[in-house]
Amino acid sequence: MMENGIILVWQHWWGSLIAGYLFLGGLAGLALPIAYYYWIKERNKVMSAVGSLIAFIGIILGLFLLVIDLKRPEKAYLALASPALNWKSWMTIGTYIISLYTIFSGLYALPFIVKVPSPRVTKYPTVIGAIATFLGVATAVYTGFLLGAIKSITFWNTPILPVLFVVSGLSAGLCIYCAVSPAVLRLSKGFEKHAARIRLQLQRLDAYSLMTELFLLFVYLDTAMWGDTGMKEAAKSILYGNLAPYFWILVVVVGTIIPLILLFGYTLRIKEESKTAIAISVIAAILILIGSFTLRYVILKAGVIQISLI
Amino acid sequence: MTRYGMVINLKTCIGCGACVAACSEENSIILSMIKREAKVQLGTRTDFEVVEEGTFPNAMRVYYHHICMQCERPPCVEVCPTGASYITKDGVVLINYNYCIGCRYCVVTCPYGARYVNKWLKAPDKCTFCYHRVKEGLLPACVEACPTHSRIFGDLDNPNSEVSHLMLKAVSPNQPKGTETKVFIIPP
């Protein structure tokens, strides 16, 4: 496409696999810090187990998507062990962060799943959890920086993108928690009484993070509309171009507005734990996850390189 | 120090496509890979874009060239995680396929759209200034094939070379991006 002496090339090399990887990176990255919060605050083993397992499974799934997206997956080990490793690349830094995070989220999950007969069992999760929390937040932030470091695509090269991805990762991490943890807490001995309180806490935070995400998305697209040609074209395609159906239906309505209605209209009003509350939480979680994934996909697909011919 | 560079003279380019054909032949890229309707999304190491500029009576056809700009500070090398993309001492950006994992970070990052994913290599491919020929004292295939001497290749640091003289008349398409290209273009 030619416009004002600039050729626009739509980014078509990275698709839904990378979108899935970015989505899982954000989700898994922020699931463990929430679990760690409940460990530090109230020594809640069930919440820690749930959170670290979500993180561990999510990050392994994300890594799997990343590897199968490579054109030469058999050489994937070079990203960690290439003789000419480039530490200036965000992909190298990110690969190390994610690999370490996989190890540490697994280590953190270990004592909650397997019964370790050790007197230092409370010290171990505190230390490992602190490291894993740091790595988890770094993972979520890195998914934004991975795109932000690409100078050719001005739509991605903005400081707001990592923030948006972190908030979106937080809402996704929280919602999957809200779906899983009340059920698990109800089944766990001695933790039943916490179920409703924790669900309400998480869902309130989830609702706020969804609203923040919507606001950030508005700021992001609005500034893009006033940016250079590449940014403008990207924002146009999202707002009323070929990506508009994905954006308006899946990201805004399904991923944000309906879950907000469900959260504020129903689940946040119920102070007691019931099967309906859990069912609605699960539905809201699925919708938020769909929206969160589609957000990554839309932003990836809207990337446009502007090539000035002279 | 040798610093290889190229000047493309759009004043004399007639858009015959000999450079594209010669490149494809030299580097064994099959020409049928070029999709004319999507030619900007390069399927070749070099290509050109036909643009009609101006209105009658001052209208003209311009052939804008696509080629790796061989940046002094190449974004593709900066982002490559495994160090597969590298810059040689004489300033040519090359790919070491032993290290390439095919993540396409470099393809997305190139501000000039100069890289494409080669289906057979299962990796990105780009113009190498025909490094294998240049090392033997030959000219790049496209430069040798050009009938109107519109592509001029040589050592930018050699004050007696044609390319270093023409460079002063030419523009670098990339000033705002700060990549400092070594391919210069004489505007039409």
CATH topology name of chain A, in short, is: Formate dehydrogenase/DMSO reductase fold
Distance between the termini of chain B: 31 Å
Find the count of extended strands of chain B (DSSP E, 2+ residues).
9
The global form of chain B is: globular
What is the N-to-C order of secondary-structure elements of chain B (H for helix, E for strand)?
EHEEHEEHEEHHEHE
Percent range of helical residues of chain B: 10-25%
Structure explained in plain terms:
- Chain A is mainly alpha-helical and 310 residues long.
- Chain A has a single domain (2-308), classed as Up-down Bundle (Formate dehydrogenase/DMSO reductase fold), CATH 1.20.1630.10.
- In chain A, 74% of the residues lie in helices and 4% in strands.
- Chain A has helices at 16-42, 45-69, 78-81, 90-113, 123-148, 160-187, 195-225, 229-240, 244-267, 275-301, and strands at 2-3, 6-10, 304-308.
- The model of chain A has no long low-confidence stretch (mean pLDDT 89).
- Chain B has 188 residues and is an alpha+beta fold.
- Chain B has one domain (4-186): Alpha-Beta Plaits.
- Helices cover 19% and strands 22% of the residues of chain B.
- Chain B is built from six helices and nine strands, in the order βαββαββαββααβαβ.
- Chain B has a three-stranded mixed β-sheet, with helices on one face.
- In chain B, β2 and β3 (60-66) form a beta hairpin.
- Chain B starts with a strand and ends with a strand.
- The model of chain B is unreliable at 32-41 (pLDDT under 50).
- Classes of the chains: A mainly alpha (310), B alpha+beta (188).
- The A-B interface holds A 2, 7, 9, 11-14, 69-73, 75-76, 78-79, 82-86, 88-92, 95, 149-153, 303, 305, 307-310 and B 40-41, 49, 51, 64, 66, 75, 77-84, 86, 96, 99-105, 107-113, 117, 122-123, 171, 173, 176-177, 185, 187.
